[in-house]
Amino acid sequence: MKFFPALTRRGWIWLLVGAAALVFAWLLDNRVDAALTVASQTELQKFASVCSKLGEGWVAAVWGIGLAIVCLLANRPPLAAKIFFVALTSELTGLAATILRVLFGRTRPSNHDVPPGFYGVWHEGHWIIGQFKFSSFPSGHAGAAVGLATAAWLLHRGWGVLAGLYALAVMWSRIALQCHHLSDVVASTVLAIPLAVLLKKALLPSVEFQFGNLNRTLRRK
To answer: What is the separation of C-alpha 32 from the centre of its chain, rounded to a whole number of angstroms?
Structure first.
């Protein structure tokens, strides 16, 4: 182990903890799914639908880009860069989860056409890539929301708390609407948190540099 850097050791620890959390969530899937599912045509179901819509990738993208532009025009490039980075991280973690769910092909809780399970990308002589009923594990919505919350937390604890509440609402809504199992959103959490940490190191300095250049260009005009 002495040949591995500290980050790698922490990575292994996170992998083990995440695997344990995923197994535990898997055992609780049926109970939690049943407890959190909301009846259709109720106020709670409508609220869950709103939370789910807010978890779609385009929402973070539009708000992130819009607020970043406003901050840049207000001569606050560091803040603009941070907001843009949070939105970008959300998109990338959501994309990672989406790619994996396409490859795993797990059936959604609302599916009643085929037995529950993982079908990969091929079933009964047909490609099932992108089919809704085979796109449960992990949750793209949860991946994007948790990625956003983690990125926000890494930059500002206050932002992180608010974003964390948003992520919890999105994850609850996906289970409540029978779009995902508990283990699907837990898997997204295990994936998105370390990915967001890595993206901060890999992308934030470049994003800050580019926004600084944009600000200097705007000020010269």
So the answer is: 20
